[in-house]
Amino acid sequence: DIQMTQSPSSLSASVGDRVTITCRASQGIRNDLGWYQQKPGKAPKRLIYAASSLQSGVPSRFSGSGSGTEFTLTISSLQPEDFATYYCLQHNSYPQTFGQGTKLEIK
Amino acid sequence: EVQLVESGGGLVQPGGSLRLSCAASGFTFSSYWMSWVRQAPGKGLEWVANIKQDGSEKYYVDSVKGRFTISRDNAKNSLYLQMNSLRAEDTAVYYCARVDWVGGNPDYWGQGTLVTVSS
Questions:
Q1: Which of A27, A57, B30, B33 has the maximal Cβ count within 10 Å?
Q2: What is the model's pLDDT at position B21?
Q3: In angstroms, what CA-CA distances link B101 with B6, B25, B32, B98?
């Protein structure tokens, strides 16, 4: 199974900050990765697919990069509505696996 | 508008069975792979199972193999998850999700249905 190691597990930041979340795959997964945002009590929402493609309707302050084993999600200027938990998901091989999540909190 | 609506969750005793359903609308259901993903209370997301458009391929996480069965009825635009031999660790919100052609991972999700396994 491919392990997805996501860091940090939590992060405190302020409105306007630039933040980066990382996912490392235990083996190469090309660009078969998506990033999701989840708010309490809600279903996840896809932000990024194919590692770096922005989902339609998602603000351009969100961006993804990486290929192979290392991937990043960057939020260029945090907005109040961005405080949530973020997950990566690899679909390169079964079983598909999520990272452990990053809880982004207001400083 | 794409809509996915899960139903069938509830309280069940350990060893019991439950069948979850997901009603899809707003897209051509038979053209998409579909997924079930779960989330235990206060925990992260866990992929559970995928099914191909015609039901000919199915994949499961190891922890549910032999106990859970994913299926679909394209005539009814519905996805199912038959869960047998339920354990306390299966307690979670179960989400139905559509797998996007381009991205290869879920793009639209339902609101989830809670399954509680407890005596």
A1: B33
A2: 98
A3: 22, 17, 7, 9
DSSP string computed for B9-51: -EEE-TT--EEEEEEEESS-GGGS-EEEEEE-TTS-EEEEEEE
* Strand partners for B25: B3
In chain B, which residue's Cα lies nearest the Cα of A50? B103
Sorting pLDDT into bands at 50, 70 and 90, what band is B103? confident
pLDDT tens by residue, A22-63: 999 999 999 999 999 999 999 999 999 999 999 999 999 999
The verdict on A74 touching B (C-beta cutoff 8 Å) is no
**Residue numbers in B near A102 (CB within 8 A):** none
Q: Which of A46, A53, A88 to mutate: most B Cβ within 10 Å?
A: A46
Q: Do B62 and A97 touch (CB under 8 A)?
A: no
Provide the shortest C-alpha distance from residue A78 to chain B (in Å).
23
Spell out which residues of chain A touch residue B37, defining contact as CB-CB under 8 Å: 44
Q: pLDDT, tens digit, for every residue of A75-102?
A: 999 999 999 999 999 999 999 999 999 9
